[in-house]
Amino acid sequence: MKYKFPVHCPSCSKTLTVTELSCGNCDTRIVGNYTLPILMQLTAEDQEFILQFFLSSGSLKEMSVQTGKSYPTVRNRLDDMIAHIKELEQK
Amino acid sequence: MKRHILLNPFAHFAEIQLVAAGLLATAVGSFLGWQCNTRFDGVLDLHFVSQTTPWQPLLDNGINLLCLVIPLYLVGRSINSKTRLIDLVSTALVARIPYYVLPLTNTGGFMHLASMNLVENATKDAPIGLGAVAANIAFAALAIVATVVFIYWLFQGFQTATNSKKNLHKWIFGGCIVLSEVISKLLILSVN
């Protein structure tokens, strides 16, 4: 089962930070307080959208064909995500 | 899924498919308008007459489409500079489809006679036939449904084309429809 990557705190809804990283091979652990990169702060659906956008060479037309959505629908989603990312950058 | 597509076809179909379907529907609707003596004399208007020429319903629809597209495009561009003309053309073409079904109710001049009968008897204080009343009520109900679907589709298409989210945009959209109705009515009366 693929677990959903948590981005927001389930208690207070604030953005989570990474406090521990570990090596799956030798069990080395790194403890600290690392802020999630902006792209990691997006929802899984938004990250999937960005991946699709990258794989289709940034062609919204091609993406609209692949996803079965109209061009303005795909463009609107991208515009909303750009606005959201700008908000995250300002935080 | 199919219900979802019908609720907002503009989110699912490519602009070329929507324009093709809309043009075909406009041609069929104009033909029905000619055959069933119907004038589309305004963006939100439709009247049955005693005689139409083949080009009258076609010109009516052309004027109505222009009167819808131009204000919606101007407003759309002011809301979002990425708004494309083709998306609003396809929106207007598809949204008007419900109106193209209405001429069928006047097959053989049925609705024209029923409405004339109602008006004449009412003005002369003569008894009004139950059939004429029922026909007019049924047509009014059908026309209301067509108008609701038209406005709903037009709004869905406008929202998809402009990515508008604010309540103010809804009011501006409403104002655009009223303006389109007034301009189209005046143009059709003077030109056609």
Automatic annotation (TrEMBL), chain A:
Can you name this protein? DUF2089 domain-containing protein
- List the InterPro entries hit by this protein, alphabetically: DUF2089, DUF2089_Zn_ribbon, RNA_pol_sigma_r3/r4-like
- Domain (DUF2089) ranges: 9-37, 42-85
List the SUPFAM superfamilies.
Sigma3 and sigma4 domains of RNA polymerase sigma factors (SSF88659)
Pfam families cross-referenced by the UniProt entry: DUF2089, Zn_ribbon_DUF2089
From TrEMBL, chain B:
Transmembrane stretches, start-end: 12-34, 54-76, 97-116, 128-155, 171-191
Keywords assigned by UniProt? Membrane, Transmembrane, Transmembrane helix
Which superkingdom does the taxonomy of this entry point to? Answer: Bacteria
Keyword presence, Transmembrane: yes
The answer to whether keyword Transmembrane helix applies is yes
- Protein's name in the database: Yip1 domain-containing protein
